């Protein structure tokens, strides 16, 4: 399949601190919510992960060699502030200076996320994003990073996937603190994260820090199961709850009536309420006029029908195909169409959903400036055979999604780059180590890297695009 992407299109690789760095107790790093949760679960350890804390020069040299123009990195908040606030850990600060320098030395632009799921333990124990003290601490931490690293970093991301945090923590229960079906908490957490994001954007602009700032949302498209009209209500409920609520927050600066109609109905059916303060709305309104870009993470779409029974969700975190169940009271139930392929973790492969999502953003939020696809890729059980990893399925997956991006660009949607998830194999929060996404295979025992077939393909595509 030929791909025609603009010459200046960015080919990036994505990572997240906790999933690649390892070294979770090294050089004064403070604890995060996941340290305790993973220990309690006793399924897998976040150490050594891809040992990026020490191996970053190798990964950046490989990035340069394989046509990776940019890298998504997150700062581990507790390497800088071990307790979330207060005393600064100079060793952590020095680490990120060295890491960003290495990026620039290799001509790999860093796109830096301030919060990628790893809330400092103390703040987590006091309510995480449900507590406004976390919001205040986050704003201070962001301010510190902008001032300290602003000469090296020109692209900032406030929060990665607020919806995954809220639903993982309070609905699916596969993120700490492991609570299920509490939609009130999930919706409140999303709102509070939107406020945190807005305050940080406003501060960035007020202090005139150099560069651009945006947020990363996971966005999935919803379609009616069996094409039946009665399923459209579930499609709307899911879309509003998972996508529109937070897109309204960042682009409109308020929650529109059609959005609140659904949110209030979901809250009512789940005996919940949402608290929104006037000052928070003022912050949202101001930030909506100043945000520079949207990072769109896309992996899958869903086919749904209404569901009014008792909620039941089973997260397939093992790769046993066919075990995922998703039924959420007053929201919807996911139905799997046997004609649409899915991964071993039951993630539905549907590139059209990416195109449809971008079109929806363009139509509903005409003030959006530009979009980066900040995560997309295939989780698979890759194997090394005779020293090689032939991940053709990944190449096919990425090609199909890049095709959807090419079509979006042709339809006038401003998409500026694509970050493959992931740059190298790494630790997966709820799946451990057997779900691999990387361009570079990682042997987690020796930390050896083996560029996969996809890496060679990527290099060719990246170079061809630049020379087109
Ligand atoms: C996104 C997260 C990433 C990453 C990815 C793949 O939601 O931002 O951190 O984990 O999904 O997910 P998983 O590791 O569950 O397969």
Commentary on this structure:
The chain is α/β, with parallel strands linked by helices and 468 residues long. It has one domain (10-466): Alpha-Beta Barrel (TIM Barrel). Helices cover 42% and strands 15% of the residues. The strands form 3 sheets. The chain has an 8-stranded parallel barrel, surrounded by 6 helices. It has a 5-stranded mixed sheet with strand order 6-8-11-10-9, covered by helices on one side. The longest helix is centred in the middle third of the chain and has 24 residues, at 183-206.
Structure described in brief:
The protein is of the alpha/beta class. It contains 15 helices and 15 strands. It is about 40% helix and about 15% strand.
Main pleated sheet: 8 strands, parallel, barrel
The small molecules bound here are: 6-O-phosphono-beta-D-galactopyranose
Order of helices and strands: EHHHEHHEHHEHHEEHHHEEEEEHEHEEEH
| Residue runs with pLDDT of under 50 for 5 or more positions | none
The CATH C-level name is Alpha Beta
Number of strands: 15
Strand sequence of the main sheet, in spatial order? 1-2-3-4-5-7-12-13
Helix-strand blueprint:
Elements: E1 10-14, H1 17-20, H2 33-41, H3 52-65, E2 70-74, H4 77-80, H5 90-105, E3 109-115, H6 121-125, H7 132-149, E4 155-160, H8 162-172, H9 183-206, E5 212-218, E6 222-224, H10 232-252, H11 257-269, H12 278-288, E7 293-297, E8 302-305, E9 312-314, E10 325-328, E11 332-334, H13 352-364, E12 371-375, H14 392-410, E13 415-420, E14 440-442, E15 449-451, H15 453-466
Parallel strand pairs: 1-2, 1-13, 2-3, 3-4, 4-5, 5-7, 6-8, 7-12, 12-13
Antiparallel strand pairs: 8-11, 9-10, 10-11, 14-15
Helix pairs in contact: 3-5, 7-9, 8-9, 9-10, 9-12, 10-11, 10-12, 13-14
Bound molecules: 6-O-phosphono-beta-D-galactopyranose.
């Amino acid at each position: 399949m030929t791909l025609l992407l603009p010459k200046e299109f960015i080919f990036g690789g994505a990572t997240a601190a906790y999933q690649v760095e390892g070294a979770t107790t090294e050089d004064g790093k403070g604890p995060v919510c996941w340290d305790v949760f993973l220990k309690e679960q006793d399924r897998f350890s976040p150490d050594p992960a891809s040992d990026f804390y020490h191996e970053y020069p190798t990964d950046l040299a490989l990035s340069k060699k394989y046509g990776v123009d940019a890298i998504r990195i997150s700062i581990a908040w507790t390497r800088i502030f071990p307790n979330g606030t207060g005393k600064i850990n100079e060793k952590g600060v020095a680490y990120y200076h060295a890491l960003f320098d290495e990026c620039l030395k290799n001509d790999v632009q860093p796109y830096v996320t301030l919060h990628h799921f790893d809330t400092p333990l103390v703040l987590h124990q006091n309510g995480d994003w449900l507590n406004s003290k976390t919001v205040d601490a986050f704003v201070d931490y962001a301010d510190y990073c902008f001032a300290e690293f602003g000469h090296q970093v020109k692209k900032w991301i406030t929060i990665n996937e607020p919806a995954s945090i809220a639903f993982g923590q309070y609905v699916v229960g596969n993120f700490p603190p492991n609570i299920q079906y509490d939609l009130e908490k999930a919706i409140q957490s999303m709102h509070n994260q939107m406020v945190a994001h807005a305050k940080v954007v406003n501060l960035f602009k007020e202090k005139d820090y150099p560069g651009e700032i945006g947020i990363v949302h996971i966005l999935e498209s919803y379609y009616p199961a069996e094409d039946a009209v009665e399923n459209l209500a579930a499609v709307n409920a899911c879309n509003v709850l998972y996508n529109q609520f937070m897109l309204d927050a960042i682009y409109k600066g308020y929650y529109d009536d059609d959005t609140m109609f659904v949110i209030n109905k979901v809250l009512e059916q789940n005996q919940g309420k949402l608290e929104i303060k006037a000052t928070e709305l003022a912050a949202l309104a101001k930030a909506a006029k100043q945000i520079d870009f949207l990072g769109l993470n896309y992996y899958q779409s869903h086919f749904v029908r209404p569901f009014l029974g008792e909620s039941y969700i089973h997260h397939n975190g093992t790769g046993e195909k066919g075990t995922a169940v998703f039924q959420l009271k007053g929201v919807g139930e996911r139905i799997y169409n046997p004609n649409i392929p899915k991964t071993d973790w039951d993630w539905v492969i549907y590139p059209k959903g990416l195109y449809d999502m971008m079109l929806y953003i363009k139509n509903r939020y005409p003030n959006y400036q530009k979009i980066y696809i900040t995560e997309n890729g295939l989780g698979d059980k890759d194997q090394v055979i005779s020293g090689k990893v032939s991940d053709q399925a990944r190449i096919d997956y990425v090609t199909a999604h890049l095709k959807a991006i090419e079509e979006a660009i042709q339809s006038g949607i401003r998409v500026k780059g694509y970050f493959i998830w992931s740059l190298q194999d790494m630790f997966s929060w709820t799946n451990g180590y057997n779900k691999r996404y990387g361009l570079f295979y990682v042997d987690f025992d020796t930390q050896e890297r083996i560029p996969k077939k996809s890496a060679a393909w990527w290099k060719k595509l990246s170079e061809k695009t630049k020379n087109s």
